[in-house]
Each structure stands twice: as C-alpha cells, then as structure tokens.
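Pair request: fold both.
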Amino acid sequence: MFEVIVLAIALSMDAFAVSIGLGSKGNIKGLGLKAGLYFGAFQALMPFIGYLGGRGVLGWVDAYAHWIAFGLLALIGAKMIYEGLHEGIEEDIAAITHKVMLLLSIATSIDAMAAGFSLTLLDIDAYLACLIIGITTFFFSWLGVEIGKRSGTWLENKAEIFGGVVLILIGIKMLVI
C-alpha cells in the first residue's frame, strides 16, 4: 500500500505543476474544483488502462517485468525532471476552457498509463490503487490552483522534478526487491 501512495503522489506532480500554472493566471471561480475533477479522473483512468495492458502481456514478459517497470518509471521520471527544468505550456494558454482542460488532462496523464504497468507487479487491488491515484491527484490539483493563485509559479518546476525523482526511485526499488 505504501508504494501505491508514493506512486500516487509522484504521478500527481505533473497535474500539480500544471495546476500551479493555471492558478497563477488569476482568481477564476471554481478552477480548483475543475482542475481536480479533470486531472483526478484522467490520472485514475490512465493507470488502469496501463494495468490492463500490462496484465495482457505479463505472461509473455514475466521474467523481464521488473526491468520493464523500472525502464518505464525511469523514463517517465527523467521526462518529468526534464520538463521541470524547462518552460511549461501553461504560459501559452489564454483561456481555461473545457477543451483546454481535457487536453491538459490527457497530456499530464499519459505518463500514468505507462506507470500503470507497474501495478501488475504490486500485490494490491488495481481498482483501489487507481482510486487512490485519482483522489491524490484531485487533492494536489486543487491545492496547486490555490498555491498558484497566491504565489505564482515559483513552485511549479520543483514539483515536477520531485515527482520525477520519486518515480525513478520507485523503479529502482522494483529492481532491488
């Protein structure tokens, strides 16, 4: 269960960072709830899709599953660190519409689909794991908007880097254990 909570926090850092950027655009009524619902729903759904795909191929790659999970988590973590060191896309967003939220939700949760493969290696109910990931992301997205409203974007990149480092560490732990 501990691994799922850590994974949920790490995966939610993309949405958290984007939410800080969105919140910094001004005091838009209901944006925290909107961001939480969009990002939380997609972050819950995508790992489940990855889990189902992982279950489908697990028999074929069982001997290498830990290496595959490590590779996926390391790549996702490295990508998050890279993105944390470079400019985000939030600066280019003029209006926060449902279409923009949908696109941002998909963009921030694609990584979670790949990370969902690692759920096949954990001794936990995938439904519960995805629910935990969704609720955690909802909370961090709402919190990110509130932080962005009050302080701007100074924390945005640091959150993404933190999430990337944690994903890499989870991948390393899967190799060791």
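--- second member of the pair ---
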Amino acid sequence: MRLNLKSLAISGLVITCILGTSACSDDKSSGPINPVSSNQSAIELSSQDVMFLQMMIPHHEQAVFMSDLAQTQADSDAIKKLAKAISITQKLERSKMREWLTEAGEPLSSDGHSMGAEGMLSEQEILTLRAANGKAFDKLFVKGMTAHHKGAIEMARDEVSSGQNEKVKAFAVAVIALQGAEIVTLKAIQKLHDLKSGS
C-alpha cells in the first residue's frame, strides 16, 4: 500500500503543476505559474467547459466532506491516509475551478445541472456514512468513494471529448489519471482489509 500511496502523491504533484501553482516553479520569487498571459485577464470557456466546472465543484465538495469524515471515523490507517490526500488535492482543484469560472464571468453553480453530477452520494447515503464508525465506515467509504470517482472520470471524459478550453481539458485528463489511480488503491484497501459489502 505504501507504493500506491507514493504514486498518488506523485500524481497529486502533477495535478498541482497543471493547476499552475508555485510548486512547479524553480524560481520561488516569480509567484504562481499561470498558463494564461498576465496581459490576459479573462479565460474563455465554452458551454461544455462551464457545465463541467459547475458540476465538478459540488462533486469535489462532497468528496472532501467524505474524506474529512474518514479522519475521525475510519478504522484503517490506509483509508485515513488516502482520504487526507483526496481532501488536500480536491480542495486545491476546487479553488482553481472557482477561479476559472470567476475569471470567465460565469456563476459558480447552475441549478439546471449541478445536481446531475455523476457518482454523487444521495442524502440518505451521506447520512448513513456520517452515522458509521470503524470497519462499517470503511466499507461504506470504499464503496462510496469508488462510485464517486467513477462518476468524476465520466464527467472528465466528456470534457476531454467536447470541451474547448485547453487548460480545463488538461485538468480533466489529470482528473482521469489521478482518480483512476485512487480507485486502484481503494480496491487494494478493500481486498487487504476484507471490506466487501456484506463481509
């Protein structure tokens, strides 16, 4: 499990670079890297780009909520470590997505489609997760986060195929890679700790 988590840390750094933060700059005095020219104050987004970002923000917010619960309610240290990595990365991603929408003059959410995000847990599933502890929580977390990530990957694939903004599409590609790797780790944890539903 150590190797898998190390790979996720590397993937997280790749996400950081794509989002344009100072972690990828050798010149610490230059500030954050921004793929957009300093003379260009706005970002151009297509309707697909906007929809993807507006749907992905609440999707990330739910993943962060689930991951933060794991810090106090999970039994497995591996789940706690993975959940912490998910929380850190998705908070960073959420901030960048909000920034892109704001720069484009677009609202951060849309009632028309934000609730249609793939893989989102239902209100009842969230309540059940909040009430669980120990191994029972671990089972629900692995199942729920796996479905959650699969939904994010589907949305990201739609953006890659139909989006217009190259930065947003590059971000979507990174989401597919990182969350795919996290699914592999979740499945390994599930097998290692016998967390199959009904076990």
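Observation on the second member. The chain has one domain: 2-22+44-192.
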